[in-house]
Amino acid sequence: MNISFDLDSTLIPNGKEFEIEKRSGIAKLFGIEEIRKGSSELISDLQKDGHKIHIYTTSFRTKRKIRWTLKYYGIKVDRIVNQTENERTLKSLNINSSKFPLAFDFDIHIDDSKGVGIEAERLNFKAIIVEQSDKSWVEKIKKEIKNIG
Ligand SMILES: [Mg+2]
Asked: Which domain of life is it from (predicted)?
């Protein structure tokens, strides 16, 4: 399946909401962002299971910057949709929603936002909503993907 991940407060912390992977001082200097503990392993496990992993964010970070950060942690994703592309695409489809993963052929979207959960019900797309404080977020995601698939 095509699985997309949100960035802010899902994979990348906004503050101190979850534990993070180790990052060197040099990496920080080069603009590598912090990432949630377990992200690399989760994404690589899903890829080993045959899923395609994408990033779907409403942030205006450039795709290059996102790839740069992910690469540092050994994460390779297929497609990155940032807010520039999201806005343009949803507008052209006349969809009034912050996110609509189906517009990009994403089968399941993973996000921390309850608002996205409500949009998922309204627009009939599949979303897994993960609490920022959920320490067993990796297991939750794996389990729900199995249930959906
Ligand atoms: Mg978020």
From this structure: Bacteria
**Residues β-bridged to residue 53:** 3
Q: How far is the CA of 58 from the centre of ligand 1 (A)?
A: 8
Q: Quote the domain boundaries for residue 36.
A: 2-148
The mean per-residue pLDDT over the stretch 51-59 comes to: 98
Centre of ligand 1 from the C-alpha of residue 30, in Å: 23
Backbone φ/ψ region at 78: left (φ over 0), alpha (ψ -120 to 50), beta: alpha
Give 93 Cα–ligand 1 centroid separation in angstroms: 23
CATH number of the structural domain spanning residue 12: 3.40.50.1000
Number of domains into which the chain is organized: 1
149: pLDDT strictly greater than 80: no
pLDDT of residue 40: 97
CA torsion, points 123, 9, 22, 37, in degrees to nearest 10? -60
Cα(49) to centroid(ligand 1), Å:
25
Ligand 1: centre distance to CA 92 (Å): 23
